[in-house]
């Protein structure tokens, strides 16, 4: 996953791009069988032990989800941690430094 | 509070009733994935599952940004921001998708209520943004015309 966080004054803007198939569970394969859904359900962003962003996503979010938000109280050099989990239990955590 | 393993299981043994009580406590942290809301197949149902009993009003304090025409329904860029105070959550709905609720953002105290995401839209539909603040829902909506649907095979 790619994370970009930049602070300007008291406002930190965060953009992230998560590589994930986001399979809806409504598509059929060549044999007409339903392809099981496989999508990210939750994304959490922590900064200094507090959650600054929590998203619940459904399969209507595009493949390779892009998410952006802003929070106050961050500063350059500090870290944010992004964690996602999908409906099949897979999870990934990544850390990024605010610039 | 510290619990011994035995005590823990005794509490768990108090049964499903205890779990239900826990689930219905006011959201102390952030809610876990709301399956009922994400699988609801009608807009009103989805909204009720996310915000039971909250009144809704249209508001110019909610800014919804999305293309009027989306050439590719698989990737529709959407932004929502709000100038309201005490925003607790923001949710996005595509009225004509099989499950209208697309995304639900629980905002912590330090979040500035300015969110972007990319959504799939199966066909031309209304896009609805709800902002929860002070126990009320504030709504903005816009129609997005889709030339190529985003949910087909």
Can you characterise this structure?
The complex is a heterodimer of chains A (99) and B (153). Chain A is mainly β and 99 residues long. Chain A is 0% helix and 53% strand. Chain A has no helices and seven strands. In chain A, strands 4-3-6-7 form a four-stranded antiparallel sheet, with no helix packed on it. In chain A, a hairpin with a 4-residue loop joins β6 and β7. Chain B is of the alpha+beta class. Chain B has four helices and nine strands, in the order ααααβββββββββ. In chain B, the strands form two sheets. In chain B, strands 1, 3, 5, 6, 8 and 9 form a six-stranded mixed sheet that branches. In chain B, strands 2-4-7 form a three-stranded antiparallel sheet, with no helix packed on it. In chain B, a hairpin with a 2-residue loop joins β8 (125-133) and β9 (136-148). The longest helix of chain B is centred in the N-terminal third of the chain and has 9 residues, at 5-13. Chain B is globular and about 60 Å long. The relative contact order of chain B is 0.21. Mean pLDDT of chain B is 86; it is low at 16-28.
């Amino acid at each position: 996953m790619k994370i970009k966080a930049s602070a300007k004054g008291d406002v930190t803007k965060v953009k992230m791009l998560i590589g994930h198939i986001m399979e809806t569970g409504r598509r059929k394969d060549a044999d007409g069988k339903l392809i099981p859904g496989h999508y990210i359900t939750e994304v959490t962003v922590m900064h200094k032990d507090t959650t600054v962003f929590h998203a619940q996503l459904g399969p209507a979010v595009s493949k390779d989800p892009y998410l952006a938000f802003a929070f106050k109280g961050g500063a350059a050099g500090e870290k944010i941690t992004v964690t996602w989990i999908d409906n099949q239990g897979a999870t990934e955590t990544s850390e990024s430094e605010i610039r | 509070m510290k619990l011994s393993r035995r005590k823990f299981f005794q509490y768990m043994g108090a049964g499903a009733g205890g779990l239900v009580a826990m689930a219905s406590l006011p959201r102390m942290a952030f809610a876990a994935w709301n399956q009922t809301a994400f699988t609801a197949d009608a807009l009103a149902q989805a909204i009720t599952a996310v915000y039971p009993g909250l009144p809704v009003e249209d508001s110019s304090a909610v800014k919804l940004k999305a293309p009027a025409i989306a050439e590719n329904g698989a990737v529709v860029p959407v932004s929502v921001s709000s100038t309201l105070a005490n925003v607790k959550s923001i949710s996005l709905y595509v009225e004509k998708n099989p499950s209208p609720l697309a995304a639900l953002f629980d905002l912590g105290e330090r979040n500035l209520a300015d969110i972007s995401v990319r959504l799939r839209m199966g066909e031309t539909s209304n896009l609805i943004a709800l902002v929860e603040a002070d126990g009320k829902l504030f709504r903005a909506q816009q129609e997005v015309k889709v030339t190529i649907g985003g949910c087909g095979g």
